[in-house]
Amino acid sequence: MVDRDPILEMRNVEKSFGAIPVLRKVNFTLRRGEVHALMGGNGAGKSTLMKILTGVYLKDSGSISIESRPVAIASPNDAKRAGIAMIFQEFSLVPTLTVAQNIFLNREPRKGSFFLNDRAARKMARAVLQDLGEDLDPDTPVSELSAGMMQMVEIAKALSQNAKILIMDEPTASLSEHETRTLFKIVRRLKAAGISIVYISHRMAEIFELCDRVTVLRDGEIKITQDCKNLTIPELVDHMLGSSSASAFAWQDRQIVFSDAPVLKVSNVCLPPRVRDVSFDVHPGEIVGLAGLMGSGRTEIAEAIFGRRAPTSGAIAIDGKPIARQRDAIAAGVALVPEDRRRMGLVLDHSVQSNIMLPNLDLFRRGAFVSDGNAADVVRKMIDRFQIKTDSPAKVSRLLSGGNQQKIVISKWLARKPRLLILDEPTIGVDIGAKGEITTQIRELAKAGTAILIISSELEELLAVSDRLLILHDGRIVQDIQRRDVQSEEELHHAVQGHLIDRTRHATAV
Amino acid sequence: MQSKAISLTERDMQRRFDIGQVLGFVQDHSVYFFFAAVIAFFAVTIGDNGFLSVTNFFNIARTTAMISIVAFAMTFVIASGELDLSVGSVCALSALTCGMAIEAGTGWFVAVILALLSGLVIGAVIAFFVTRIRIPSFLVTLGMLQLIRGVDMRVTYTNPVAIADKTFNSLFGSGKLYGIPSLIIWSVVFALIGHVVLKYTTFGRQVLATGGNRVAAEYSGVRTSNVKFCVFMISGVAAALAGLLYSGMMQTARFNYGEGLELSAIAAVILGGTSLFGGKASIIGTFAGALMIGTINNGLIIMGLDVSEQMIVAGAIIILAVAFARKPSH
C-alpha cells in the first residue's frame, strides 16, 4: 500500500547493539499533517528508532527519505537541517535566560557581526508564540514558567528552526489537566499548518483523542500501523503485550464490605491554600482512589498523612494514633510512594539494594551495624516479587527504566509490612508492561490486608483498581462513591471538574 | 533468553559491550594507580637519596597523620553533600586550648578533653547555622575559618605556647609503640574506624543517602538534619585531634597550625574517589590520597625543590590526578 503524501519514510531500518538486535526491518511512514502515535513497552525500540531519526544513533541498514528524497542523517545537525526536531521529555531550556533568549540560543539575530539584536529576537519570538496561539512575554525568564509553558517554548524553538517533523516524547507527563488541553489545542493547530508529529505516550486515552494513526513496536518489530478509529484500547494493549494480559487493566468488583475499624482516619483537615476541609477513612484491605485535578491538593493530602505537612486544623490518625510528624507516620506503618520518583523516591546513583534498604536500616541492624546478609535476602525477594529487571542488586538504579525504578520505590517500603500504602501517581512514565505488574502487586497487597490510597491523573487507572473513589474538588471531598456506582470514565472526568456523579439510579441496588 | 535480552534497556546493552566498565574501575580506583606511579617515579629518580628507606616511609606516614585524620572526617562531610573549610583554624584552637590548659596546671588528660570539646562545640555551631538557619556550609565554614584564626591569634598574641608534659608529648607526638610512631598508630586506627563506620553502620548509610539525594533520604525516613549535625561535630573533633597531634609533635602550640590544612584534606578526599557532590565515598581511598600528597611533598623536598617550587608542582599534580579521577557527568 502506498501512503498518501508521506513526509517521512523509514524503510527496513535495522539496528543492533553488539549481538542484540533492537530494531528489525522497521518500516515507518509519517504522513504530512498527521499525528502519529508510537507505542510500545520499554525496550521495544521506540526511543532507538527516534534516536536514529534525530541523528543520535546511526542505523545499521535501511533507508530514510523525507518528501520522497533520500536523506543521510549522521548527526543531530543533519536531522535539524532535514526539519526534524525533538521536544524533550526533560526540557532542555536554560532556566536563567528569557523565553526569547532560549528560542534563539546560539543563533541569535545580530546587528553587524558583533552585537546582538535583542529587539529582533523579541519580535521574532513573539511572532512564533502567537502562531502557536500563546500570548507569552518573550522577556519572561524561563524559570518563572510552568511546565506547560516551558514545553510551549520548546515547540516555538523547534518551529523557529523550520521544523516540519516534531517528535514529542511523553509530552503530558508533567502537565496539569488544563495544560494538557492547551497542548492538544496547539498540536491540532500545528497539524492544520501541515506539521507532522510523532507522538510517544503510554496514555491510551490521549492517543485515541489526539492521534490519527498508531504504530506499535514490540521486541524491535512493528506489530501494527493502523488508523486509531479502527482500534479499541484492549486491542491496542494486546498488540503491545503480545498476549491477552489486559486483565490487569480491567476492574473486578471484589464484593467486599469493609467493616473493620479504619486504618486511616482523616477528619476535617485543612492544608492552606488548597485543601479546605477534608474527611475520609480507609479500611484494611481497601483500595481507595483519590481523584482530582492536578493542583487540587491531592499531593498535599498524601504528604499530610505521611506526616510531612502539618494541617492547620483537623486530625489525622492511623489505627487511632494521631500523626504529627513523619516519624510517627512511619512508626505507625504508613508508606508513601511520592509523586516524583527521581527526586523524592530514589538515590539515583546508589544501587538497587541500597535504595530498597534505605527505609529499613533499623530492621537490618545489629547494634550500630548494618547486616547486609539479612538485607540481601529481603532485596532478592523484592526483586523477584516485583520482577524488577536488573542485572544484579548492585546495579545503579539510574540505569533502570522508569517502570523498574518505580518498582524499587514501592518495594522498598514492603519490608516494613505497611498498614497503609499511599501511592502518588504511581505509573507516570511507566510502560504498559510494568504498569500491569504494578497494578497486580497493588491488588495483592490489598488482598493481604494493606489499606491503599492511590492518587492518579489517569482516571482509567483509578477505575481499574479502586474499590471506592474520593472526588476532590475545590479543596473538599465532594463525593465519596463506591467504584461500582461509577459507570464510565467520562462520568469521573466530569466529577473531578465539579459535576457530581448521579448515584440515584443505583439507589435500589445498594 | 531472547526476551530477557530485549527487555534490557539500550543503555545497558551499550554498557555491556564497551570497555566502559574496565575504565570505570580504573577511574574509581585511580588514586592507587597514581600513588603507585608517584612512588615509582621517586624511586627511580631519588631512590638512592634516601627516598626508598623504611625511615623515610615512616616519616611520610607520620607527617601526614594530621591531614589523614582531618580528611577521614572530611570524607563524611563531603559524602553528606557539605564542606568544612574551618578545620585548619579549629586545629590551631585545639592546640592552644590544650597548651594553655596544661600551662594552667589542669594535667594533660583534662587538657585533651577540653581541646576536643572545643572542636565539638565549633562543629555544633557550624551545624546549627547549616541545618537550622540554612546557610550553605561553604559560607558558614569559610567565615568560621577566619573567625577562629582570629581567636587563635588574639588569645596568644601570636606567641607560641610551649608544652612540657612528657606523657602528652609522647602520646600525641614523638612516642612509639613496638617501634611504630604514635602518629602512625593514630591515623591507622582512625582509618579503620572511619572505614567501618562509613561502610557497615546505619549512620554511614544515612550519610551516603543524605548526600546522594537529600529529598529522597528524607522521604525514606532519614533525618538528614541530624545526620549533617553529627557529621560537622565529627569534623570538629577530628580537627581538634589533629591540633593535638601537631602540638605533641612540636611540643608547642602555635596559632598558625593547620594553615591550608582544609585544602590538603579536601584534595585527599577527592583524590581518593569521593564525589565532591556527595553520595559516594571511600575512607581507604582518602587514606591513599592523603599518603600520596605526603609522598609528593616528601619526594619534592628530597629532590631539593624549595617551598615555592614544591607548591607549584604539588598543586599541578593534584589537578591532574583529580582531572583523571573525575567521572564524566551524567
Give structural notes.
The complex is a heterodimer of chains A (510) and B (330). Chain A is an alpha/beta fold. Chain A contains 17 helices and 24 strands. In chain A, the strands form six sheets. A six-stranded mixed beta sheet of chain A has the order 6-9-10-3-11-12, sandwiched between helices. A six-stranded mixed beta sheet of chain A has the order 18-21-22-15-23-24, with helices on both faces. In chain A, helix 4 (118-131) packs across helix 5 (147-160), helix 5 runs parallel beside helix 6 and helix 13 crosses helix 14. The longest helix of chain A is centred in the middle third of the chain and has 16 residues, at 177-192. Chain A starts with 5 loop residues before the first strand and ends in a 14-residue tail after the last helix. The mean pLDDT of chain A is 89. With 330 residues, chain B is mainly α. Helices cover 75% and strands 2% of the residues of chain B. Chain B has helices spanning 2-7, 10-17, 20-28, 30-46, 54-79, 87-103, 108-131, 137-156, 166-174, 182-200, 202-212, 214-219, 224-250, 261-271, 283-302, 307-325; strands at 161-162, 176-177, 180-181, 252-253. In chain B, a hairpin with a 2-residue loop joins strand 2 and strand 3. In chain B, helix 6 (87-103) runs antiparallel to helix 7. The radius of gyration of chain B is 21 Å and the shape is globular. The two termini of chain B are 30 Å apart. The chains are: A alpha/beta (510), B mainly alpha (330).
